Amino acid sequence: MEFRLALIGFGVVGRGFTEILVRKQEYLQRKYGLKVKYVGICDIKYGSVVSHEGLDPAKALETVKSGGTLEKHLNGVKGLNALEFIELSNADVVVEATWTNLEVGEPGLTHIKKALNAGKHVITTNKGPIALAFKELDSLAKSKGVKLLFSGTVMSGTPSIRTLIRGLAGCYVSEVAGILNGTTNYILTKMEEGLSFNEALRDAQLRGYAEADPTMDVDAWDPAAKIVILANIAFGSDIKPKDVIREGIRNVTLDNIKDALRRGKRVKLVARAWIDDGGIRAKVTPEEVDVNSFFGQVGGTVNAVMYRTDSLGDVYLIGRGAGGEEAGQAVLADLIELTL
Ligand code: HSE
Questions:
Q1: Is residue 281 over pLDDT 80?
Q2: Which of 217, 221, 320 to mutate for ligand 1's pocket (most ligand atoms within 8 Å of CB)?
Q3: CA dihedral (301, 315, 150, 34) positive or negative
Q4: Which of the residues 12, 89, 185, 253 could staple to 324 if both were Cys, CB 3.0 to 4.6 A apart?
Q5: Cα 269 to ligand 1 centre (Å)
């Protein structure tokens, strides 16, 4: 199957995905019969180019790597804003990989609505629109007969969402719990080694794990959005990030961490959502967990999730949850899902 793909956002995620596609082109065609034609790339920094005949993704990567802009080095219609870009493109799939905004979901939310309304499938890694407006976007996609896929919004390429939707199909899930933020888990792990909070945060930023605004990680907005996304899928609910009881890791001291370790415990930022008499509850708070427990063994930037189910008991998934290659893999898996 051949897709005409338009990519909005050529940052870490957009480029990570493009690198995988370029690298695995032959393999994807051989194994899945998947062919992808880039018919547009749009980025706030590198400009936008639309070409119905197709763009060379390897050239786009090369251009940006060598400090150039897409508008200068690729041929096609240039200078469009993201909405004009969607309108003019002949894509059947739009990949939305712009930055996350958890207050209003923009600009991703408008991009996604525009693309769905135009009858295009949407694949996004953008947590804001999915955490804030999943129900609305899902209905819109269904009414237009297209798919909205968003695997990369939680745990990147580690398939937390697909496991929940597909793997656990038919199970009754009563609780979801996870270490869903790599930056804070990395900071807590480094603090165990004696680094101060600020040193560990700087390290996470240098390695590219942290959000552009690290308060999203440190004050737990990012894992709050992720637990909302998982909860709404698991429970069919419509909770929002503001409904999540939220406490980040700013108040966790080196003394707290050392004291916990002396008692065989580790401090972890755990996100939980569960069904309660009064409805759905969700929280993200630092918790002490046993060093030898599943969550106690999750160190560094690694993420993990547990689904409590009726038929299978507790189901666990662990893996990398951040990075360009990891998020790129999530987009690729979604693209392959469109062929099934
Ligand atoms: N800042 C996020 C994290 C990136 O640290 O987990 C992935 O969503």
A1: yes
A2: 217
A3: positive
A4: 12
A5: 13
Check: CB of residue 164 under 8 Å from CB of residue 234. yes
Q: Is it the case that residue 322 has pLDDT exceeding 90?
A: no
What pLDDT is stored for residue 278 in this prediction? 77
Mean pLDDT to the nearest integer, 267-272: 98
Cβ-Cβ contacts under 8 Å for 336 (sequence gap 6 or more): 28, 32, 34
The number of angstroms, rounded, from the C-alpha of 38 to the middle of its chain's C-alpha atoms is 22
Pocket of ligand 1 (CB under 6 A): 181-183, 209-211, 217, 222, 321-322
Window from 23-27, 94-98, 197-201, 256-260 with minimum mean pLDDT: 197-201
- CATH class given for the domain over 162-320: alpha beta
**Domain 2-157+324-337 class?**
alpha beta
Asked whether the predicted pLDDT for residue 213 surpasses 90, the reply is no
Q: Of ligand 1's atoms, which has the minimum distance to the CA of residue 204?
A: 5
The answer, yes or no, to whether residue 285 has pLDDT greater than 80, is yes
Give the residue from 250, 157, 167, 165 showing the smallest Cα distance to 201.
250
226 carries an active-site annotation? yes
Closest ligand 1 atom to 327 CA: 7
Instruction: Say whether pTM exceeds 0.85.
Output: yes
The domain limits of the chain are: 2-157+324-337, 162-320
Whether the link from the prior residue into 57 is cis, omega within 30° of 0, is: no
> What three-state secondary structure class fits 232?
helix
Q: What is the mean pLDDT of the chain?
A: 96
